[in-house]
Specification:
246 residues; alpha/beta; Rossmann fold; 7 strands; 11% strand
Amino acid sequence: MMEELVAGIIGGMGPEATVDLMQKIIAHTEVKDDSGHIRCIVDNNPKIPSRIEAILGNGEDPGRVMAEVGKKLEEYGADFLVIPCNTAHYYYADVVRAVNVPVVNMITLVVNTICTSYPDMKKIGVLGSTTIVKTALYEKSFAALGVEVIYPDPDVQAELFELIKDVKSGKTDISRINKLNAIGKHLLSKGATLAILGCTELGILANQDLPVPYIDAAEQLAIETVAIAKRKKILPPDTSICHLDI
């Protein structure tokens, strides 16, 4: 049997989302005992500069720090890297250029999963931070495929952004879950037939009560991470998502 690959996780964006990814990796790994789990090398680094502030033009470039983290993970033995933050994929190319190991592109992964599993769905809602809307990471990926991306109305998007900040500060009570469900109902009313949880914090809140069918980007990343580590899937190089014009 071929030796498993080691996953490197560029984490801390935010810390709870990184832990959530690791829990999902464990949940999606079939094992008989501890040794059956995959090895992950994790830098849960909340000191990476704010992606949101940088994209809005008010902060330090996080791409440089993400690249440094990626290089360190490679030095420590990671065979491939993952980034459990949707917005951070705006700086995906910075990491790719800095390392000599493959880097999973979560945006591309989610788009490909939807196109393969839901080929007839042409109106996809995106629930994410305000910078996911601004950078149009998902929108530009879907455009060539004839898929319309639907965002919440501006006032609802502002509520969603506050909800994401609540999760980052540790507030995950039932009132926040209910708020996410209400936002999901809003997307459904706008014609979305499927929603992407395009912020890894939202997967912490989402449950079966979310009114719109959804794909959790973090869960797809976890499934992909296990498949690559177990050598059930070969990771192709992908530098298609990088510094897009905004």
